[in-house]
From TrEMBL:
The lineage of its organism: Eukaryota, Viridiplantae, Streptophyta, Embryophyta, Tracheophyta. InterPro entries: NADH_UbQ_OxRdtase_chlpt_su5_C, NADHpl_OxRdtase_5_subgr, ND/Mrp_TM, NU5C-like, Proton_antipo_N. Its main location: plastid. GO terms for molecular function: NADH dehydrogenase (ubiquinone) activity; NADH dehydrogenase activity; quinone binding. This is NAD(P)H-quinone oxidoreductase subunit 5, chloroplastic. The gene is ndhF. Residues 141-442 form the NADH:quinone oxidoreductase/Mrp antiporter transmembrane domain.
Length: 709
């Protein structure tokens, strides 16, 4: 058994070595690598497949033995400090390794087709392998120093991948924004690690958590200082997992290629923060103040992310704010002590969100031939519609992911989200209201995205023939009939569509599908289903989207009376009565009617507004005002970026200018003044030297006379 655990280091090593080899070969032999670039993709997939195979075997071994294994060796050793490196294999490590490797392999298969014509194809796979290796290294790390090293590598890879198309100004700005925002969280994390070491004298996670709890329970350490250290540790996940108020980078990160958006939002970067809080959860448990702050940050993030997604017109940004909201659910669950429920939602959400992002990439890939390569157009849901008829597999799988995220049984996210909502109500009515409201909003905005993208009529082809034909199509109500007036469309979306069609995007090559009569054929004016390499990952991801929820419910009870996930986590958490639910499956479904009703309410409202049937009982004036407010709130991201820019960025720049002026005119002025004075004095003295001894004696006498007086 132990011999199998000793191979755990191979899991992160496989993609790391592959990344280095591909990068080295492409640097030495660029032409050969470019000609054989698909071989690079095959090696990348093979390396991650080996890592996945080992992860599954380790997980199988742990299910049987309920054991953990840790191996480390000294890296820096002296009389004052001891830093070790190594790897740990426990249930949390195995679950996260399986999550990262399975999603990573599917993203790589998908990327082979999606990025095939991109000039940076090989570079993309180098970054992708390094990203997966960094996340897997983070997962197997047994101490805080090693976690911090891989934590920074994850941030660096996200910077490289978000700014992959760095020639695009928006992508360059987005990767810088993500990097700077995460530096704030990483600095707090570093201070928290140093503070924890100062208290416990150890960087090892298990030892430092036990020692920290022992000292706080005995009042051997100041309670306020302990909370400060804990919250500084939590500041890292706040930035990495896009929690309020450091969430502002997440939607801009959509400037990267869609496959990497799927990996970031499903199994790597944003999941790193949730994993880290789960890894050091014992440190937070005995600090009620810290747990309460964590809960409120999670609740605010969940509700804020849902409101920001309500009226997004960009498909990927809508999914990004959805990720932010669901991450808030997970942090809320951790804050109220629902450890298993948070990990359960992390697993179910990862597969559902990967499915949705890869589905959106399939849509964007098909839209490019109609509206060009500008993200403002090929990701604009107002230019889509009716795609389910032309892309049936993409539409069906996207609908599965949508229903799962909305919380509709028996799909995966239903089970995990229902647990969080129920336990939020048990813990506090305030958190229960937040979780329930977010569930309603989730049903609304997710179905809005599906309806605008896949239902109704395809609108991009008509927009090229005539600007008004797109506007006259009733996007709000979903009416497929053409009208001569704009009364069925809200004024805000009318102006928005007119602007988006009148303003060309500079720097992008636009495609016009209507330059000839032949372009009006059904083959050319409607999208096509993506190829098999892009469809296959969608079909595979549909399976865990349907079935992964079974691990956290009492469909199959173990000898301890727990569900499978809680049984697997016994070595970490023991048997928790709070997590135990003795009811059978039928009773669970009956008890979950409340959360399902919340989702159905949101879906129904979305269908009434955006569905194919016009409802005459809704006031047009009220609806236009409401939609204008939602659009304004969503497009301005709740005005948070505006206030950050106004008070922080501009404030820092103003202070920097004042400091620069002070440095230039005061500090430099004093130094330069002394130098100039010395120079002028020397020059003046030089002109007083004539070389005559009588003149020198006369000057000497003039100087002596005052002294004698």
């Amino acid at each position: 058994m132990e011999s199998l655990y000793t191979y755990a280091w191979i899991v992160p090593a496989c993609p790391f070595v592959t990344s280095g080899l591909i990068g080295l070969v492409s640097f030495i032999f660029p032409k050969v690598t470019k000609d054989l670039r698909r071989v690079c993709a095959m090696f990348s997939i093979l390396a991650l497949a080996v890592a996945m195979y080992i992860s599954f075997n380790l997980f199988k071994q742990q299910i049987v033995n309920h054991s953990t294994y840790e191996h480390s060796w000294s890296w820096i050793l002296n009389d004052d400090i001891s830093i070790k490196m190594g790897f740990v294999s426990d249930p949390l490590t195995s679950i996260m390794s399986i999550l990262v490797t399975t999603v990573g392999i599917l993203v790589m298969i998908y990327s082979d087709s999606y990025m095939y014509h991109d000039q940076g194809y090989v570079r993309f796979f180098v970054y992708l392998n390094l990203f997966a290796a960094s996340m897997l290294g983070l997962v197997v790390s047994p101490n805080l120093i090693q976690i911090y090293i891989f934590w920074e590598l994850v941030g660096m890879c996200s910077y490289l991948l978000i700014g992959f198309w760095f020639a695009r100004p928006s992508a360059a700005n987005a990767c810088q924004k993500a990097f700077v925002t995460n530096r704030i969280g990483d600095f707090g994390l570093l201070l928290g690690i140093l503070g924890t070491y100062w208290i416990t004298g150890s960087f090892e996670i298990r030892e430092s958590c036990d020692r920290f709890n022992e000292l706080t329970s005995n009042n051997s350490v100041n309670y306020s200082f302990a909370n400060i250290c804990a919250l500084l540790l939590f500041l890292g996940p706040v930035a990495k997992s896009a929690q309020f108020p450091l969430h502002v980078w997440l939607s801009d990160a959509m400037e990267g290629p869609t496959p990497i958006s799927a990996l970031i939002h499903a199994a790597t970067m944003v999941a790193a923060g949730i994993f880290f809080v789960a890894r050091i959860f014992k440190l937070f448990e005995d600090l009620p103040l810290s747990m309460n702050i964590i809960s409120w940050i999670g609740g605010i993030t969940a509700l804020l992310g849902a409101t920001l997604a309500l009226a997004q017109k960009d498909l990927k940004k809508g999914l990004a704010f959805s990720t932010m909201s669901q991450l808030g659910y997970m942090i809320l669950a951790l804050g109220i002590g629902a450890y298993e429920s948070a990990l359960f939602h992390l697993i179910t959400h990862a597969y559902s969100k990967a499915l949705l992002f890869l589905g959106s990439g399939s849509v964007i890939h098909s839209m490019e031939r109609f509206v060009g390569y500008s993200p403002n157009k090929n990701q604009n849901m107002l230019l889509m519609g009716g795609l389910r008829r032309y892309m049936p597999i993409t539409g069906t799988t996207f609908l599965l992911g949508t229903l799962s995220l909305c919380g509709i049984p028996p799909l995966a996210c239903f089970w995990s989200k229902d647990q969080i909502i129920v336990k939020s109500w048990i813990y506090s009515s305030s958190f229960g209201c937040i979780a329930s409201s977010t569930a309603v909003l989730t049903g609304f905005y997710m179905f809005r995205m599906y309806l605008l993208t896949f239902e109704g009529e395809f609108r991009a082809n008509r927009s090229d023939r005539n600007t008004l034909s797109l506007v006259n199509n009733n996007i709000i109500w979903g009416n497929t009939q053409m009208t001569e007036e704009k009364s069925n469309l809200s004024s805000s979306l009318w102006n928005e569509l007119i602007d988006s069609n009148k303003k060309p995007i500079k720097g992008y090559k636009e495609k016009n599908s209507f330059t000839s009569k032949a372009s009006y054929s059904s083959e050319s004016i409607y999208p096509k289903e993506s190829n098999s390499l892009m469809i296959l990952p969608l079909m595979i991801l549909s399976i865990p989207t349907l079935l992964s929820g079974l691990i956290g419910i009492h469909f199959y009870q173990t000898e301890t009376g727990l569900d499978l996930l809680s049984e697997w986590l016994i070595p970490l958490r023991g048997i928790s009565q709070y997590e135990e639910n003795p009811d059978n499956l039928i009773q669970v479904l009956i008890d979950s009617l409340g959360s399902v009703s919340l989702s159905v309410v949101g879906i129904s409202i979305s269908y009434i507004i955006y569905g194919p049937i016009k409802n005459p009982y809704i006031s047009k004036r009220w609806l236009d005002s409401f939609l204008f407010f939602l659009r304004d709130w969503s497009e301005n991201r709740g005005y948070i970026d505006y206030y950050y820019d106004r008070f922080f960025i501009r404030g820092i720049r103003s202070v920097s200018k004042l400091i620069s002026i002070f440095d230039k005119w005061v500090i430099d002025g004093m130094i330069n003044g002394i130098g100039i004075s010395s120079f002028l004095g020397g020059e003046s003295a030089r002109y007083g030297e004539g070389g005559r001894v009588s003149s020198y004696l006369f000057g000497l006498m003039i100087g002596i006379v005052p002294l004698l007086i």
